[in-house]
Amino acid sequence: MSVNTSKLERIKVFIKTAKEFILTRFDRLIHSKTFKIVIDFLKWQNLRLHLSHAKEIIVDFTKQQPKTAFFIYTCLFCAFSIAFLDKPFAISRLKLPDQGFFFRVAEWNPAGWWFLFLIIFWLIYMATAGLSLTTEVFEKNLIKARAVLFILLTLSISSLTTLILNILVGRYTPEFLDSMNLYGFSALRFRVSETSFPSFDVQSAWAVAMATGSCLPRFKRLFCFIAGIITLSVVLTAQCFISDAVMGTYIGIIMYYAASWIVSENRENIPLISA
Fold first, then answer.
1. Which residues pair with 172 in a beta bridge?
2. Could you count the other beta carbons within 10 Å of the beta carbon of residue 44?
3. Rounded to the nearest 10 degrees, what angle do helices 44-64 and 66-80 cross at?
4. N or C: which end of the chain has fewer CB within 10 A?
């Protein structure tokens, strides 16, 4: 009995000591200059001014360096999506039946056939130019052939960048989440059919849409709309994660600007990564 009483007394002493220590620390904290500065900072009037100032800085930075800002915002969103959005959203979509409009679009998405289509178009225009009887027809078909080559260039560097990132990052596709409950990354994974970051389907759609839109400006919005539908389709059918599609969109768009720089006659005076 005395042993239990002794232990109880020790516990009481420990609790009392801990309480006094915490209260002393807390008292020092609330009376410190740092605490007063933090409280003053968090007051709504001051906080509103700080938020307004931060907003101005972000807006000015975005206007002055849109490509750099686009890259930073994309990376931040992808990091957030990987941590909080991708897995639960993919699980919810994997439970749905394989039917509906978006499933049909994802099924008929010609992502793996773009190179073949473009090469065929280029050969047709070159053959037509070679068989043309007038200089005017020859030049028109030659211009079309060069436009197809530009689209092919954009798609090539976009696909190469996507391939390299897929190998380096090695993110498991949603299929692994469904069959093996496996979610995450395995660096230097060379089986690219089992990786999804960035999405091959999405990057190819946006690369072709941006390059084709530059050649046919009147239909640029239509091409971007189609690319957007393809992006939604592969996400809603859980063929890739949200962050995969976002990064794929970024790669497709930014590689269009890279291709434009490559074919520019004045690229010596234009930085590859500009504002």
1. 195
2. 8
3. 120
4. N
Q: May I ask the CATH class of domain 84-269? A: mainly alpha
The strand pairing partners of 195, in sequence order, are 172
Measured CA distances, 209 to 143, 152, 165 (Å)? 18, 11, 21
Helix (H, G, I), strand (E, B) or coil at 43: coil
Give 171's strand partners.
185
| 190-203 confidence digits (pLDDT tens) | 888 899 999 999 99
pTM, full prediction: 0.81
Helix, coil or strand: residue 185: strand
pLDDT tens column, 17-65: 777 778 787 777 777 777 777 677 667 777 677 788 888 889 998 888 8
Helix ranges (DSSP H) in the chain: 2-30, 33-42, 44-64, 66-80, 86-94, 101-108, 114-131, 135-169, 174-179, 200-215, 220-236, 242-263
Residue 73 token pair? 């915002």
Nearest CA to 235 among 206, 209, 202?
Answer: 202
**Residue 275 in contact with residue 64, Cβ under 8 Å?**
yes
